Amino acid sequence: MQRRKFIKNTLAGFPLIFLAPSLLANSCASSEDEADDPNGKSVVVVGAGISGLAAAKKLKEKGFEVTVLEAQEKVGGRLRTNRSLGIAFDEGASWIHGINGNPITTLAQQAGMQTFETLDDSRKSYDIGGILRSNTVFDNTEAEYYNILSTLKNSGNPAQSFQAVFQNLYPDKFNNRLWKFFLSTYFTFDRGDLDKVSSVLYDEGEEFGGVEKIATNGYDTIASFLSSGLNIRLNERVSKIDYSNAKIKITHNGSISEADYVIVSVPLGVLKANKIEFLPSLPAAKQNAIQKVGMNCVNKFLLIWNTAFWDDVQYISYTPETRDKFNYFVNVKKFHPNVNALMTFAYADYARQTETMSDSQVISEIMTHLKDIYGNSIPNPLNLLRTKWQNNENSFGSYSYTAVGTEMSHFDDLAEEVNDRLFFAGEHTEADYFSTAHGAYLSGIREADKIIALL
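Structure tokens predicted for Tryptophan 2-monooxygenase:
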């Protein structure tokens, strides 16, 4: 489950990695220890996801009057945990991707987030007909997959998708069921729609080293920790930001608030959908970047049974003919021994299709795969939890990616402040760590530092 596992660490990533712990210390110190005298400046943060909360917390500690406006009924944004079945089901972020130097690692410890190291090698792979695939075949294909990823961009061009280039170079692999699995779960899961991802920018971004850890008591513990002591107004949907005068006017639920500075930390999908009106209009470069950077869709499904019938491994893969369809199962029982649960996924267009399906239809499709592996006598699940990120009006997708037409400078354009008064945070504004929770967090600290530097 390593995000961008195939990307090599480069020197470009080292300074930020080394700075992360100090950034974390500055942003999470108690207000009693760090707070400066009130400076008379006010900030409204739009969105109480991890980026907005990180920015708000640091600015409050530096003496700013900070108000956070959040459209949903609780903080966290895409750090959203559903506990309705007695288990923490993270609808959005689930893993700390590389714990070494990752600011989320220390933040999670301070927030009381419990974690479990997931082992990629603890797995079994099944083909159609419930045929157990040999580890040698799986491992050799995985190695070849990474080898191809390391070179395919040399054959790509900015106008072509990864799928177009891969299919042209490797037509047999493109139609092979095991290769469909790797292109789905190893690539589309991280990067977005195979037919829309850039064939030259698919390996951009940096990664932190170390093992992968999944949250076991909820990723939203981080949001709760960061939000402590902040002035947060829930169920307040911002519809307009007028920054044409000395004071910025923010319209939310028919009311208007004013501030010296505004940080817009809503997901890229919300910006794409033009759900917030800006006066004056945003600069052309920023509008272009909003359209050009991709926003993918990954949906997650948690199923619970009375008893477990599956293999005692961390990951179970299945290779159907249809790409992106319930082909990867996380054995939740490995980190919740008393819970008989599997978590599975749908990606890209199939993920979007699931949002039109009823719970019973989803269960039927998932069970078709599990019955092919384990036999028709296995029971149906007792409960299902699911996500619908594409049609979620608070996100309109899962996270950003480098689509055809994206340039890496677009991420910087998304992060560019306007008139030293209107600022932007979120994972889509971090060129090095886009699409990750740690990228979102670091973007919030970055924008807070920009405002602090203006004093």
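The chain has two domains: 11-117+212-292+407-452, 123-207+296-386.
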